Amino acid sequence: MVLDLFAGPGGWSHALTVLGVRDVGLEWDTWACNTRARAGQLTIQTDVARYPAWIFSGRVLGLIASPPCQAWSRAGKRLGLVDQPLVHQAVADLAAGRDTREQLLTACADPRSLLAAEPMRYLHALHTAGEPEWIAMEEVPDVLPLWKQYAAILRGWGFSVWTGILNSADFGVPQTRKRAILLASRARTAEPPPPTHAQVTENDTLFGPGRARWVSMAEALGWGRTDGPVPTVCAGGGPGGGPEPFPSGSRKTLTDARDRGTWAPRPSGLILSSHHQPPHPAVREDSPEERAADHAATIEAGSWAWSLRSNNQTNATIRSIQEPAGTLFFGHRANECTWVAEPSLGDEDTSQGQPVAAPEPIRITAREAGILQSFPADYPWAGNKGQQFSQIGNAVPPLLAGHLLAPHLGVTLDPDDFNLAA
């Protein structure tokens, strides 16, 4: 089996399914387990820190682990950095067969910090049976020193190991999400997958194939097709808060537009960069019909560039719809990502000789957030909005996971199998 620790709503699992393999996920969160059940994924609902590792011995081909990042994330208090010496001690002890977690836990500023040591407990139990054949682990960038400690131990056990930071956008994910990765194998040289995308298009050379340009939010969400009517603004049933390729109400889901039209070409050589702006006004609570009418009228009166704001803070990252999203994180900031409309660069409304007010922000939808994490549009998220956003923000982008896993499984990844708007 492939064992998936801290399996969440199925980022790794969906990638494995696309690649023709199933895993068994260990996950404690009820709503993530419900999402996994809807997606047909095998799950044991349990606390990874309490589940006996020895019962898997003799049956594990690959081990995947994405420990909770809340203690380490820049979006939180980052007490994991304070606890880092304790976590390193736990990893060293577990690798030697000593379980000191209970004592170390009492000294932790954030009890979640020690969860990053849990994969070593499972690896030690499996190592006695010569398992697993391969390992893939993912966390926020600040966990890289811990992954390097794991790497040193695993090399002593006969693994080839690679650790480093990868940007999801370099692998076709419409989001510049950077993560610390550990890849290990007993059967092959561990190395990162070759990136398929770059910030600016790279042509083929004598030294290797070129790379496509980063996938923008517009492309991933199906905005900006060239053969439909003049875009109006979506509210409610469509992708949420931005121009639609078809008139409002003409389609209810992204699936309806899957096979219609072609992508508008992005300007060549344009450098994508994030920017900042003051906090946006309060989000409106009008009905979808009222918002659609207001926004459609505004779009007709002036030209506006839609952007995604990552949260409600003054220094929030804002990305144009023609760029990949910044890192999506939710949790206690659930549903604070909003679409905000700004005038296009150098564009002023002259239809009436008066400036036109920009459309007010609209909340990003769970479906949009999932697509920007490279989940398919019809992924069966369970729970209310906050619960869905929490799952999405904590998930591994399936497309990135697919690139990491395909070499271990001896299969060729076809990015078209990860059709985001399918």
Major beta sheet summary: 7 strands, mixed
Task: Please report the first level of CATH classification, the CATH class of the domain at 2-200 and 397-417.
Answer: Alpha Beta
Would you give the CATH topology of the domain at 2-200 and 397-417?
Answer: Rossmann fold
CATH architecture of the domain at 2-200 and 397-417: 3-Layer(aba) Sandwich
Query: How many strand units?
Result: 13
User: Can you give the helix content as a percent range?
Assistant: 25-40%
What is the string of SSEs from the N terminus onward? EHEHEEHHHEHEEEEHHEEEEHHH
- Note poorly predicted spans: 226-286, 294-302
Q: Distance N terminus to C terminus?
A: 28 Å
Strand portion: 5-15%
Q: Report Rg.
A: 23 Å
Alpha plus pi helix count: 11
CATH homologous superfamily assignment of the domain at 2-200 and 397-417? Vaccinia Virus protein VP39
Neighbour order of strands in the largest sheet: 3-2-1-4-5-7-6
Approximate shape: globular
Task: Label the structural class.
Answer: alpha/beta
Quick check: average pLDDT? 78
Oligomer category: single chain
Please tag this protein with its features.
Rossmann fold; 422 residues; alpha/beta; 4-stranded antiparallel β-sheet
Describe the structure.
The chain is α/β, with parallel strands linked by helices. The chain has a domain at 2-200 and 397-417: Vaccinia Virus protein VP39 (Rossmann fold). The chain has eleven helices and 13 strands. The protein has helices at 11-18, 30-38, 79-95, 101-105, 118-127, 144-156, 217-221, 288-301, 366-372, 385-394, 398-409, and strands at 2-5, 23-27, 42-45, 62-65, 134-139, 160-167, 178-185, 197-198, 212-213, 304-309, 318-320, 338-343, 362-363. Strand 1 (2-5), helix 1 (11-18) and strand 2 (23-27) form a beta-alpha-beta unit. Helix 1 packs across helix 11 (398-409). The protein is globular. It starts with a strand and ends in a 13-residue tail after the last helix.
